Amino acid sequence: MGKGERYKSESRRFTDDRTGARIRQVTSHPSIHHQPFFFVPAYDDAMRRLYFVSHRTGTPQLFAEERAEGCLRQLTGLPDINEWSVYPSRGGRHVYFTAGSRACRVDAETLAVEELLDLSQFALREKGDVGAAMGTTALSFDDRFWAIRVSSGGRSQIVVLDLAEGTHRTVLERDEVAHMMFNPDDPGLLFYAGPLTDRVWCVRVDGTTNRRLYERTDRMQWITHESWLPGTGELMFVDWPRGMQAVDPKTGQVRKITEVNAWHAAANRQGTRVVADTNCPDRGLVVFDPRESCAPVRTVCFPNASNQGAHWAGPFPYNDGPITVYAPQHTHPHPNFSPDGRRVCYTSDASGHAQVYEVELPEEDCP
After folding, report:
1. Sheet containing 22-25, strands listed edge to edge, beginning at the edge strand earlier in sequence
2. Predicted TM-score of the model (pTM)
3. How many Å apart are CA 57 and CA 31, to the nearest integer?
4. Fewer CB within 10 A of the end CB, N or C, for the chain?
């Protein structure tokens, strides 16, 4: 079996025995599956497809659940896909990813793979399981700009492809760059994570106005897992494990939005709810209103994922430089909303293999 193969539906439904939430398991093959990273959409805007990575063929390949048909379809058959680079377009035509040293996209209808840029002079990932080792990319919310982090000679760069013009340029070079995300309200503004001790930065897509948005207050403060909050212009970030804050790039004003131990947190398209997984302790997937200060938090369901990564249980470990950690990302739920805000997609390895799930939200948490 290979590219273009259609698999019968693996969907099954059940309820969470502690919250009563209605959950649908999307995949069931005894291999690794996961949706894209927590701030990357798993669906196109029309929700025709739910995209995920599956290792069922022996290598990570891009798959989609064709929601109208109910089947699972294999979209790629390449030997070297960087599985956390996957980024579906909101329009639904293409899915972007890197493979080896190539920047590529696949047409979700025809399955034609197009190489957009040869990056063989760079490294696209670092060693390890976290941060720059993941090779995440970023697509602007208007599907025009695609940002890829590369490195060479101990320096990191951000290369941005203008998909409308068919051009590319290096917009930033500095000591360290990791996860990037375009502002949903300003497609020309790109967040990126700098060094682990100084993470919160942004730069414009033309390479101007590179600046720090937030500076940690002391050596013990652990800032991580940033993502934009639609409608406000603010950037949310986790102040692990003490909660989350949000910073306004225009004014520099910082506010507390929750005190729960949010781990990976993403907002819905309307900016009215945030969903987060939790760890140390695991309180399940929680939902709250980010427009309020420390609003009530409700547990939606319990993924029961193994949440591997022992470093999360202690104080900030990176003050003296990188450390070796074992934190396979497919063991983390990485929840994110569907475009209509009525479901949350997540990963769990509770069954013994990482599988993709959807949980339905109650009406009070829907837009």
Report:
1. 12-15, 22-25, 355-360, 343-348, 336-337
2. 0.96
3. 9
4. N
| Residue 184, number of CB atoms within 10 A of its CB | 19
Is pLDDT above 70 for 64?
yes
Q: Tell the residue number behind the tokens 């897992």, with chain if given.
A: 225
Domains of the chain, each with CATH number or no CATH: 6-314+325-365 (2.130.10.10)
- What are the tokens at 345? 């997609």
DSSP 123: B
Q: Which of 133, 108, 127, 102 is closest to 44 using CA atoms?
A: 108
Q: Is the pLDDT of residue 312 over 70?
A: yes
CA atoms within 13 A on the CB side of 257: 30
CA nearest neighbour of 300 among 367, 238, 359: 359
Structure tokens at 74: 């294999």
Can you list the alpha helix ranges (DSSP code H) found in the chain?
none
Q: What is the pLDDT of residues 168-216, one digit of tens each?
A: 999 999 999 999 999 999 999 999 999 999 999 999 999 999 999 999 9
pLDDT in tens, 115-150: 999 999 988 877 767 777 789 999 999 999 999 999
